[in-house]
Amino acid sequence: MRIVFLSDLKPLLSAIAAQMDLYIPKNAGTHYVYDRYDPSADVPVEVNHIRVCTPSKEFLFPLRELAAVFPEPLEPKEIEPFAVFGLKDCDLRSIEILDKVFAEKEFEDPFYVKRREKMFIISSDCSDPADSCFCNVLNGRPFAQSGFDLNVSKVKGGFVVEAGSLKGEELLKTNSELFSKAGDDVLAERQAQRAETQKQLEQNNADLKFDAPVNEIVENGQDSDIFDQEATTCVECQACTRVCPTCHCFYLYDTKKDDYFSKMKMWDSCMRIAYAEVAGGANPRKILGDRLRHRFMHKFSYFLERYGVDMCVGCGRCVDAEAGDVDIRAVLKKLNEEFEREGKNKAKVGK
Amino acid sequence: MNQNLYQPINGEIIDIIDESPTIKSFVVVPEEEFRFATGQFVELTMPGEGEAPFTPSSSPAITDKMEISIMKAGRITALLHECEKGQKVGIRGPYGNGYPVDDFAGKEVYIIGGGVGLAPIRSLFLSLVERIKDFKSVVCRYGAKTPADFIYKNTLFDSWQKIEGVNIKLTVDQADGQWKDNVGVVTTICAKDDVDVKNAVVVICGPPIMMKFATMKMLEFGFKDSQIYLSMEKNMSCGIGKCGHCMLGKYYVCKDGPVFTYDQIKKYPNIWD
């Protein structure tokens, strides 16, 4: 697909914003948040160096939404096309994961599917990974691998813009006056930067290594008391699941207005104590350690078995967000140590 | 718009039957055609209040209405117990897999039930007796807390017992003055020679603790894990394998169940809780 050079980001974003709502990262000091792009505002547009703090799922699977109205069904509002700038490889991979759940044939979530069709994705390269970023150990990269319409990489004097879909290709074509040819020098610079950032990630996570595929490590430790020990530092704030771009638990609740009833869909968290409780009082995961165990098993084993992919992209948002002290990397590290120990023991028994 | 799986169809409760001090059966008429397979469940909405999963207790052959037996156990069931004939409800579903009745053909079907667990079993039982000749026999063991807690009393004590090919035994945890039959948990009326273990399937539905001990008993009798069918009660919410509440190991009980064979789920933690 087409790769071009762009000297100024604003005319491109304004051209997109002329067609649809566009959300861009806003620097909030310690982190980024999404904000609606206003072409008339005189604020500099920047390429966020890491993922935005809030999870990308919000654009497709909002915190709360209307799922049904009855007795008379309401034709849902038409979703207008919208664009998001600044999504990272971890975000794109998380959308791929959510697609598997919400766009599953015969069980489609119509609200998700509609938004997904209307979403235009402009991803960008990471330039300075956060301490909590660990995508590299879970097949992630600090630059988009697939799943984008356009990708933006900052280089000296401008940006390299790459189309990743027909929609993106089309947009480059209709705005061709904004672009010039991407020379070998800027492409080489992009490649060098990507390698540099990848190296930085690898250095940051040098001590996080797995001796086997991560699902095997987690499955091996599923009965381990590591989860119970780690859970003692959890304060059940549920932030890990809220901020996670792949966590997609929700609950349905009903409300009433004067002449109609509605069913609402709202994010939920498997770390909540009553999450799996039934009316009779039975609860398979009333113990916090069991809930943490289930969360890991879901992410690294059950989801993989069902959909062929892990449900963790290594974005590290949960590490940044939680109020307690459960660090997903530390838990995986301990599970790996146990795997290594037990593997050696097993080998001894084998002899 | 793609079909909205969260949209309930409208229905009305046209009759309410008091079954026991804690269980009522509701006869629900959906406004649109609604078919289910025995063992599948529906999400029943109390408008404006919430919804809860129930397995209909009527035969799937009856398509203009369905019966749902409900024990007062939580908020929604308490509201349902307070409502009267004419109450409007919402219905979503049917969800899940149901009982593989065709696979039971030529075999003895050994049904073990407890409490309100007889509700899904009634639907299965009615489906079986409609084609009773396809099965070697239907053997039913059912326990209730006290004689007053039996549900479907009219048929359970009478017409069902007279069906050729059907064998029913009942027990209570606690007898009253009238009760002359067995006293004890349901496993006390299960015997190894109730059925030919080699050519039978077991269907168990009831409170978690009863299902656990009934399963252990069946394993003692020599049944294989794959011969034991369990109706799992979990917190099914969306019904379409997304919201996560009903997860049992890798399974979504709502989509992959609610009927599982024991070998499918035995490796997962806390299946009986």
Name a few traits of the molecule.
heterodimer; A: 351 residues; alpha/beta; 2 domains; eight-stranded mixed sheet; three-stranded antiparallel sheet; 11 strands; 36% helix; globular; B: 273 residues; Elongation Factor Tu (Ef-tu), domain 3; Rossmann fold; seven-stranded mixed sheet; six-stranded antiparallel sheet; 15 strands
What's the helix and strand layout?
The complex is a heterodimer of chains A (351) and B (273).
Chain A lengths: L2 E4 L2 H9 L3 E7 L4 E5 L27 E7 L11 E6 L1 H14 L7 H9 E6 L25 E6 L2 E6 L2 H9 L4 E3 L2 H21 L9 H7 L5 H6 L7 H5 L6 E7 L4 E7 L20 H20 L9 H5 L6 H23 L1
Parallel strand pairs in A: 2-5, 5-6, 6-7
Antiparallel strand pairs in A: 1-8, 1-9, 2-3, 4-11, 7-8, 10-11
Chain B lengths: L8 E10 L4 E8 L10 E6 L3 E5 L11 E6 L3 H8 L5 E8 L12 E7 L3 H12 L7 E8 L8 H10 L3 E7 L9 E2 L16 E6 L2 H14 L6 E4 L15 E2 L2 E2 H4 L2 E3 H4 L8
Parallel strand pairs in B: 7-8, 7-11, 8-9, 9-10, 11-12
Antiparallel strand pairs in B: 1-2, 1-6, 2-5, 3-4, 3-6, 12-15, 13-14
Q: What profile does the largest beta sheet of chain A have? A: 8 strands, mixed
Radius of gyration of chain B: 18 Å
Structural class of chain B: alpha/beta
Give the rounded overall mean pLDDT of chain B. Answer: 95
What gyration radius of chain A follows from the Cα positions, in whole Å?
22 Å
The name CATH uses for the topology of the largest domain in chain B is Rossmann fold
- CATH class category name of the largest domain in chain B: Alpha Beta
Order of helices and strands of chain A: EHEEEEHHEEEHEHHHHEEHHH
Contiguous runs where pLDDT drops below 50 for at least 5 residues of chain A: none
What is the count of β-strands of chain A?
11
Number of helices of chain A: 11
Helix count of chain B? 6
Number of strands of chain B: 15
Overall outline of chain B: globular
How far apart the termini of chain B lie comes to: 40 Å
| Largest β-sheet summary of chain B | 7 strands, mixed
| Residue runs with pLDDT of under 50 for 5 or more positions of chain B | none
